[in-house]
Amino acid sequence: MTASSSYPQRVSPLLWLTVVVLITINLRPFLSAPGPLGPVIQNATGMDLRAFSWLTLLPMVLMGLGGWLAPTALQRLGARQAIVSALVLIGLGCALRIAGASSMVLIATAGLCGAGVALVQSILPGLIKRQSPHNVPFMMGLYSAALMGGGAFGAQLSPLAIQWGMSWQASLAMWAVPVVIALPLAFYTLGRIGLPLPTAAAKHSQPVASDTAWLMRRRRTWLLVLSFGLMNGGYASTVAWLAPFYQTHGWTATQSGSLVAILSVAQAASALTMPALAARSADRRLWIIVALLLQAVGFALMALWPTAAPTLSIVILGIGLGGCFSLYMLVALDHLPSPTQAGALNALMQGGGFILAALAPWIVAQLQQLSGSWTVGWLYQAGIAALVCLMVAQFNPKHYAREMRQP
């Protein structure tokens, strides 16, 4: 029996597409909004660079831990309850930032948001493969584009909100609003499609936990985790430090926020188009390597000639980051035909990967503190992108069945 017949579609494709976008667009604004406001937040709270890096580090660590726990949460809660509960956590974390006059409040709310994002982004890709089995490249591209688009909104609108007279706390807290908009439609739609059921209703079916257990004994799982984590560290570092970096060159919060927004728009466009281009072949390696090389070029341009053509550098970097992320999500799903097992593998990849990626902003901050310059940190990220190219060369689809053979 096919995945689509086991879990019949009871909503229109347009409604499903809309819900995916509305849910996903909430997963990054809380992460991208603080960067452009860095000096304002640091002056108000006394946070140094290392402390400020925790606004990115903590949620990304939690995203990683959530990736490991997501299969269990999916089994015990069911997809609708898990995703709706996660959206509530994100909305609560954003709303509580209205009281964010201290560093501890900001870090704690970042943790709440990160915990909610962890569940959504670990569960949703598997649901996309289940609900859209014949259109996975397009849907994963759309998912990734919405993810990056949310980041663009956060980076651009929060600095503008301050110009419009809002406090910096309110400009961070306002990202609870799109969560409130998404919640009722997500609750309705996820209740109308066939979804994995909680344990009590599915105790006679193959448990997700067993899928996770055998996947963790596969070398390919750990190669995906390591390479995804190293690659995604470039995104984490950029979200955390791109705006503060250009503010050291005299840019304002709004101007640097616009640059982060341009980065996110380039990511979104690339995330949508690269999977479509890669869909012509089961072998995605060439496109991933192209995306990684674009990352390396973008980071090198930022390090060596930051003010020569900043917009061009950021667009090149954004194309590389966005395309690579969406292609990795697709490659993880490609490895296994079963939506349940592919979703579990994707969750594991994101789980370990985001924990590794969380270290990147801290490493870049350390390098900046030690050297007195951001140049070393950006060159470090360029080198990491080149290193991941060597790992990606092993992702030959002809070997997926052998690499992921179930015991």
Task: Describe the protein in words.
The protein has 407 residues and is an all-alpha fold. The protein has 18 helices and no strands. The longest helix is centred in the C-terminal third of the chain and has 33 residues. The two termini are 22 Å apart.
The helix-strand sequence is: HHHHHHHHHHHHHHHHHH
- Please summarize the sheet with the most strands: none
Q: How many DSSP H or I helices?
A: 18
Oligomer: single chain
Mean pLDDT: 85
Query: How far apart are the termini?
Result: 22 Å
Low-confidence spans: pLDDT under 50, at least 5 residues?
1-8, 200-210
Number of β-strand runs: 0
Share of helical residues: over 70%
**Proportion of residues in extended strands:** under 5%
Report the principal-axis shape: globular
Radius of gyration computed on alpha carbons: 20 Å
**How does the helix and strand content classify structurally?**
mainly alpha
For this entry, give a set of tags.
407 residues, single chain, mainly alpha
Helices and strands in order:
Blueprint: H1 3-6, H2 13-24, H3 29-32, H4 38-45, H5 49-77, H6 79-95, H7 103-131, H8 136-163, H9 168-173, H10 177-190, H11 208-215, H12 219-247, H13 253-278, H14 285-304, H15 310-334, H16 339-371, H17 375-392, H18 400-403
Structure, briefly:
This protein has 407 residues and is mainly α. The chain contains 18 helices and no strands.
